[in-house]
Amino acid sequence: MEDQKEKLLRLILLEVVQDSMITQGTLKNNRTRRQELKTSVIELASQAASRAMAEAAKNITPPNTAYQFEVSWRGFSGDRALQTHLLKVTSPSALPQIFKNALSVPILIDIIKCVASFFIDDMDLAVKYLENLSCVFHPLTCLVSSRSCFTTIGRRRLNPVWQS
């Protein structure tokens, strides 16, 4: 009788162990599937973002007013490549007509940083932008000589660009 009980207990124990192994394998597979799904979702999101940025770059049109420029510029905030593209589709000679006297110091600083990013690659174009910006923002002359027309925050932001 005890042998039968022992065999029965062994069989039950074996079934429990097998069930446990199957359950663990299923859980492991579920975790693996979740991670694979998470990875594929991240990849899809990255691809979608890349396509959206490429599409946005295609649709950039030259602004006609300072307001249009600033709205686009702020919309591309954090993406220097799109800001550079916006600047490059805007003719340097159009800057005085676009901005007149409506160019804010933070936007000017951002534009100068942007111009600095392609200065080495396209020096002539960068110089044209800077020359035409000086027609818009007369204190730029002050910037060249002493930078005293900017606030402390403006000078702190501009200093690294100026030094490079």
UniProtKB/TrEMBL annotation:
<dbReference type="InterPro" id="IPR025986">
    <property type="entry name" value="RPAP3-like_C"/>
</dbReference>
<dbReference type="Pfam" id="PF13877">
    <property type="entry name" value="RPAP3_C"/>
</dbReference>
<protein>
    <recommendedName>
        <fullName>RNA-polymerase II-associated protein 3-like C-terminal domain-containing protein</fullName>
    </recommendedName>
</protein>
<feature type="domain" description="RNA-polymerase II-associated protein 3-like C-terminal">
    <location>
        <begin position="62"/>
        <end position="134"/>
    </location>
</feature>
